[in-house]
Specification:
The protein is of the alpha/beta class. Helices cover about 35% and strands about 25% of the residues. It is built from six helices and nine strands; from the N terminus they run βαβαβαβαβαββαββ. The strands form two sheets. Strands 3-2-1-4-5-6-7 form a seven-stranded mixed sheet, with helices on both faces. Strands 8-9 form a two-stranded antiparallel sheet. About 35% of the residues are buried.
């Protein structure tokens, strides 16, 4: 049965576009049933409209408290009857009620190797200044820890001697656009199993 996925994004939506492209090429056996955003001005909305994907705006600024916003967000996600929630540049920390509701059914992309730096995106400058030789991105399941859920996959890039923060970030972004659709595909093919801290990928 074809999986239903929802992408949650706050900004330009380049990772969302990578997922759209993979869906259009038949690489992911799923249907994107909605883009959900907390930002009514997000560029991701234009990408969704171009791909004829429904857009649900849950404007953070329209709610008096974070709790009420998260209640509305959870209600919007439930309405989609999604099998997988994909956080693709969502710039807020989700509360426990949403994380628990979608335990094992929510993934996130981070522009860092989480074994190196635990709190990206602020780590972009840190890793460059620390002189690391390898950087990259991580796709992981979301749990109630901060960026600490079980890792699905990672992709690495070499840090070049002439890199600055921007050139390194741009090369990592290219890998994000490969890693996130791949992780979504593996989930939609029922090939991922969480065993404690590890994610097993079945052949």
């Amino acid at each position: 049965m074809t999986k239903r996925i929802v992408v949650v994004a706050s900004g330009r939506g380049s990772n969302f576009q990578a997922i759209i492209g993979a869906l259009e090429r038949g690489r992911i056996p799923a249907q994107c049933v909605a883009l959900v955003t907390d930002n009514p001005k997000a560029c991701a909305i234009e990408r969704a409209s171009a791909a004829k994907i429904p857009v649900v705006v849950v404007d953070y600024g329209a709610y008096e408290t974070r709790e009420r916003y998260e209640q509305a967000l959870l209600a919007a996600l439930k309405e989609t009857r999604t099998d997988l929630v994909v956080l693709a540049g969502y710039m807020r920390i989700l509360g426990s009620s949403i994380v628990r509701e979608y335990a094992g059914k929510m993934i996130n992309i981070h522009p860092a190797l989480l074994t190196q730096f635990h709190r990206p995106p602020r780590s972009r400058g840190r890793r460059w200044k620390h002189g690391v030789k390898v950087a990259g991105c991580t796709v992981h399941f979301v749990d109630e820890s901060l960026d600490g859920g079980p890792i699905i996959l990672q992709r690495c890039v070499r840090v070049m001697d002439d890199d600055d923060e921007d050139t390194l970030a741009n090369r990592i972004l290219i890998q994000e656009h490969i890693a996130l659709p791949e992780a979504v595909r593996l989930f939609c093919e029922d090939r991922l199993t969480i065993e404690g801290r590890k994610v097993r990928v079945r052949m």
